[in-house]
Amino acid sequence: MPAWIPLPRTLAACALLAAAVACSSVPLQPLAQEQDGAEAGEVFNALVGMRRMERGSDWSPNDDLGQVGLNYLQGGLGSPWRWDFGLRYAADQAKRSVAGAAESLETHLVDLSVGPLLLIPGWARGFQPYAGAGVVLAWMDSDFRRKGVLLQDQDGTLGVYARGGFWLDFQPHEHIGLDLMWIGAGEADFAGEARRSHSWTVSLLFGYRF
Hints:
Layout: H1 8-25, E1 42-53, E2 64-74, E3 81-98, E4 101-119, E5 127-146, E6 149-171, E7 174-185, E8 188-190, E9 193-195, E10 199-209
Antiparallel strand pairs: 1-2, 1-10, 2-3, 3-4, 4-5, 5-6, 6-7, 7-10, 8-9
């Protein structure tokens, strides 16, 4: 796993730190002047985190993958509902030596998702929880290399997802938060071997609202 990808405990610690920063940096101004999620027609989010494949899904040793993603929310001003468009990329690489021969296994996952998302009323200024669900198109690639010989296989599948999380304002129109997502995609076929592709993701979220 790449060293630059944060571990889940690190993500949790960063989220708590983000909450403290947001609470200390919210401007002291009337609530009417604040722009909450429902008052922003468009929201762009960047995500970085981890994806864990379902246990027993035959993705080991590449079942914990670093992940990055982009997310775009679009909807009418004043409405709590948004269309949620997402793009995510996850990858991992494992190396080992078997009988003196070096082996490497690379896994790459890309998925596109779309669905409705609800901005839930928050109980504190600058705090915005949300929840949503929809459909996902997943593409998977597995590269196995041994003694200079590369075996590569790819497959795609449709599925569904559910996600939720929250963000906290730290500047006008800018926020940081925590995002959780479950992806229930169909089985992928690699060289005649079926692999389940259900997964969980946890990510830090950095966003801007228009």
